[in-house]
Amino acid sequence: MTSPSPIGVFIAPVTPLQQNCTTVWCTKTNKAAVIDPGGGLDQILAEIARRGLTLEKIWVTHGHLDHAGATAELKRRTGCPIEGPHPDDQFWIDGIEAQGMMYGMPEAKGFVTDRWLHDGDTVELGETTWEVIHCPGHTPGHVIFFNREARFAQVGDVLFKGSIGRTDFPRGNHQDLLDAITKKLWPLGDDVRFVPGHGPMSTFGEERHSNPFVADRVIGR
């Protein structure tokens, strides 16, 4: 008999870029965190209320507007502290309003984080502990959130089902991204399920087998 999962997850694609805004919660306490609130706050907050959850944290993987453009507004509405990303993404956060005007999302705003996150940090949610892993490449300050007990990660735009993050943005670095995936994500285990920043879920094992950019056979492992 399998034990119940320590976490719950629901995903809401938001913004014209269909970014996966992910709400996670501790199933023992119903305390929740919203990861990457790029938009769609009315929908997300309504679903949190419908499920009887208590929003306690806002977590941000990186500073792109589709992931972070509604962070300031979510804090204004709820008072919840913002944790993340890594400080190397400050310049992206500073540019969110300009990005929003370019991409037709004028409501997107920059924010002031309550806690910068670094490699090896942990964040707490109810009775669950999440590991923070700095995974630069897509942006220099990108972090991912990993719950070891549930074998679950939210990886933002580092890795996708069948693809990897773009590295042609300012301060992107393709080799850094490959290193983050193969040296930081793969050792967590093939059984880890992950939510990417866009598109469907997958597992690290599936991507090691079939991803055309980082499969073991592609990178010579």
Please give a quick description of this structure.
The chain has 221 residues and is of the alpha+beta class.
| Helix/strand order, N-terminal first | EEEHEHHEHHEEEEEEHEEHH
Number of strands: 13
Radius of gyration over C-alpha positions, nearest whole angstrom = 16 Å
Q: Uncertain spans, ≥5 residues at pLDDT below 50?
A: none
Q: Mean pLDDT, nearest integer?
A: 97
The span between the termini is: 35 Å
Question: How many alpha or pi helices?
Answer: 8
The percent range for strand residues is 25-35%
Task: Report the biggest beta sheet as strand number plus sense, adding barrel if it closes.
Answer: 6 strands, mixed
The quaternary structure here is: single chain
The coarse silhouette is: globular
Strand order of the largest sheet: 6-7-8-9-12-13
* Fraction of helical residues: 25-40%
Overall structural class, as computed from helix and strand content, comes to alpha+beta
Mind explaining what this structure looks like?
The protein is α+β, with helices and mostly antiparallel strands and 221 residues long. It has eight helices and 13 strands. The strands form three sheets. A six-stranded mixed beta sheet has the order 6-7-8-9-12-13. Strands 1-2-3-4-5 form a five-stranded mixed beta sheet, covered by helices on one side. It starts with 6 loop residues before the first strand and ends with a helix. The relative contact order is 0.14.
